[in-house]
Amino acid sequence: MSSLLIKNLNTLVTCDDQDSVREKVDLFIKNGIICSIGPNLEKTADTVLDGTHFAAYPGLVNTHHHLYQVFSRNLPQVQNLELFDWLTTLYEIWKGLDTDVIRLSTLTGCGELLKHGCTTCFDHNYVFPKDAGDLMGAQFAAADEVGIRFHASRGSMDLSKKDGGLPPDSVVQSVDEILKDSARCIEAYHDPSFGSMHRVALAPCSPFSVSRELLQESAKLARQYQVRLHTHVAETRDEENYTLAHYKMRPLEYMASVGWTGRDVWYAHGIHFNDEELRELARTGTGIAHCPISNMKLASGVARVPEMLKLGVPVGLAVDGSASNDGSSLMEELRVCYLLHRLNSSADAPSGYDVLKMATRGSARLLGRDDIGELSVGKCADLFLVDTRRLELVGAMYDPKSVLGTVGLRGAVDMTIVTGKIVVKDGHLVTVDEAKLAADAGKKCREYLNA
Length: 451
Known about the structure:
By secondary structure, this protein is α/β, with parallel strands linked by helices.
């Protein structure tokens, strides 16, 4: 049994039901669970930290990523392309994925997330080249190595260029192949228990790269195993035009027709919804992973997040793939999200604290979890600490609930703790040799891009 006591925290932002902010309190953690919060706790622990100058926040929860894209960021040939042309170009690189690329890109991307206060990551891998090996197994092993709480998807595509889709033949599979491996992955890796470090979702790529049959059968299989469903929806006008041309329906109507709405479903992006569709998302409890930086980089548009929040649509925050973001910092998304939605109306825009809750409680809700996303007794001990004496925070801590959205935080957090274990200290990873990882990942990236 392991225990951790943080003494005399300057500030504890809980993100609980009462939006509590505690001052000058101790935080006691045992076996990965928060056991006590209060002043002058009479506890002994294996590790004791002095929190006198630190603010503590719930660990951020990333609800949509493509970690393999860490090895294809900032490529000049795609910098000015929008989604469909961008994908077509990059698939020619991504078809070379293997377990080494997946392992090292997962370590790199998750390491960056942890350094910026993110403690849980959902990754949407939908590229499974023939004979590439057990990519999901490689991801979970990498996540364990770096120390992040990890949700992985058994993604899929069954429409290649010859079928009217975008990807090459080498990265698509038949429906039967996909369903068989989806069941294997769930049985091998999914852990639904409280505090689980590993969970699996089924995630066919998008309405324009998978068939109606694959969507329908994936939904049936997910509900048989009681795992969640995820895909890209309403990201671009091109997607809307595609579903109208092929199915005579707008994207949301089409997804509903194949069983893809409900509280066990969340979509990435969700930009191009009309008023009626926003109300339908709220009615069904279908969630949205908001990816502000990626949406801007690919000129996809601005999601109607203020209206979604007002209607009660479940909304979480996400970085999206590193090739459409060029980074893996959910902390950066907080401030960009806050600023983006103030462009049109400051009165209706989410506050800095609203955005923090979107990235914690809101994101946890999308992943179907009530054990993370807040700092309360009985919850998992996932959190990060920020030294309030930092130069960039001088004069900024009068509203600690909002500061990460309004002022932002440049650079790494001071400490990240996942399930009660310190994984980042003084802004650096402690679970892996960061310099060696950077060197190994850089070497593999060069080999992969030059293949």
